Amino acid sequence: MATAENPIPSLVDVIVIGSGPGSATVARELARKGYSVAVLEWGSAAPLKGTLAQMAGIAAIPFKGMFIEPDASLLLRGITAGGSSAINYATAMPPPFDSFRRYGIELESHYSALQQDIPIQPLPDELIGPMASRLMHSAQQLGLSWHKLDKMIAPELCRSGCWRCTYGCPFGAKWTARMFLDDAVAADARLISNAKVSRVLIKEKRAIGVEFKHQGKIQQINSDKVVLAAGGIGTPQILAASGIKNVGRNFFVDPVVAVMGSIKDMQGGREVPMATGLQLQGEGIMLADMTLPKPLFQGFATQAGRVDRLFSHSSTLTLMVKIRDQLGGHFNQLGPVKSLTLQDKEKFKRGIFLARDILGNAGASSIFSSWHFAAHPGGTAKLGEIVDNKLQTEVDGLHVCDASVIPEEWGLPPTVTLLCLGKHLSEVMY
């Protein structure tokens, strides 16, 4: 992707920390308005290749995630240009407008604008894989309102029978925040990759710049406007290091399990995941098809102790069960710690029961479930607690624009909400 790294400016109008959906949107909008913008990204801006090795480096670098305590969720982070959007499934769900309205933020107009700006639509039938179709038909037979999900995918660029959404789409079919970053760089924003921010510099309750490590050296850029968007894990850690108190408490992680079953009359395993699904809003449960690449499937099977299933990837139907977990947890020196509550476990039981029913009706046998892992950590710097309706902290000029600011229990794919928040912040910052 496009970068503009030399020389590093000493002074800019706005420093943006992180390059996921919210921060890329802010960088793009402000650069287009003529403000000088520097984007600091911890990860690499190397082109996405759609390989397991690259994805593993982005999502599973030691100490960039966390997995401690017996019942805690494994937290994965997208440390790369574009953040987790580079390796997510591009599922698009509108923001919960009423929730944000209660905190003085209107997002409807921003959502309407996004629908004109990026592809937000269900996949055409020819791109719905046979496994997703089988699961949708089974769920509908059981009377469930299973349907196609909106995706941020350009159908004309998507490859039928491809499995690379998880690895990072190399064809440009899947929307990622890298696309908005490229727009920002085209408007003269400076993207500085491999730049790990340690803290925001603050003087007399005002932001004055950012300290970061780049190419082995501690460096600094000055600005009285800083947008922090290092994700639900990174943002509270940087806020705490900068002297902001009470961050990283009572958050969500949107835990997920995979429920899998063997089916004899189908050979597949290469299709767009989360093409169809079901959301039980009142129960805080979401189900969707989730065809995984073979190495990831084998990892899940091994984790669940089902080594007998290691070589059945092409004949395995997989359903994702995601729940809206209760707020809780805290941060220690290693990172976030959060376990499932009894209510969370009951939601999983309900979701797994539904998934087993759907799989069984689809003809699957030898059904088993993976352990849970965290999909979308957030709520670690909440709107109404840490930031106001301009997404500004107690420090003048220091704003937050990522999943950290989500104020309540979640349970949704957050990308579209973060894009809308980025548009909101770009309008109210000046």
Summarize the model shown:
The protein is an alpha/beta fold and 430 residues long. Helices cover 26% and strands 20% of the residues.
The number of helical elements comes to 10
Order of helices and strands: EHEHEHHEHEEHEEEEEHEEEHEEEHEEEH
Radius of gyration: 21 Å
Largest sheet: 8 strands, mixed
Label the structural class.
alpha/beta
- In total, the number of strands is 20
Draw up the topology in text.
Layout: E1 14-17, H1 21-32, E2 37-40, H2 52-59, E3 74-75, H3 97-101, H4 108-117, E4 121-122, H5 130-141, E5 147-148, E6 150-151, H6 177-186, E7 190-192, E8 195-203, E9 206-214, E10 217-222, E11 226-228, H7 231-241, E12 255-262, E13 276-280, E14 285-289, H8 294-303, E15 316-323, E16 330-331, E17 336-337, H9 342-361, E18 365-369, E19 373-374, E20 398-400, H10 415-428
Parallel strand pairs: 1-2, 1-11, 2-7, 3-19, 11-20
Antiparallel strand pairs: 4-6, 5-13, 8-9, 9-10, 12-15, 12-18, 12-19, 13-14, 14-15, 16-17
